[in-house]
Design brief:
single chain; 83 residues; mainly alpha; 2 helices; 0% strand; elongated
């Protein structure tokens, strides 16, 4: 029961840490800079299809955390059987 409480506490800590990361990533600034010539129409990044990376990266991080948690669980389960 003690190991279960430890695993549960570790899971809650890691989950709350991962959920707080997007809050820290928020930037308190205005919009994108404007064109001084007034031409406008140019994309804010180059090359034009500005594709964000954050969606797929979050999924990969979550999958890695789950895999690591399973490995820790399996390791503790195996050590319980030896005792």
């Amino acid at each position: 029961m003690r190991k279960f409480k430890f695993l549960l506490a570790s899971f809650v800590f890691c989950t709350s840490f991962m959920l707080s990361m997007p809050v820290n990533a928020q930037v308190a600034a205005g919009g994108p800079p404007t064109d001084p010539d007034g031409a406008g129409g140019s994309p804010p990044c180059w090359p034009p299809p500005c594709i964000p990376i954050d969606g797929g990266l979050g999924v990969l991080l979550a999958a890695g955390a789950l895999l690591g948690g399973k490995k820790v669980y399996d390791a503790t389960k195996d050590s319980d059987l030896e005792s």
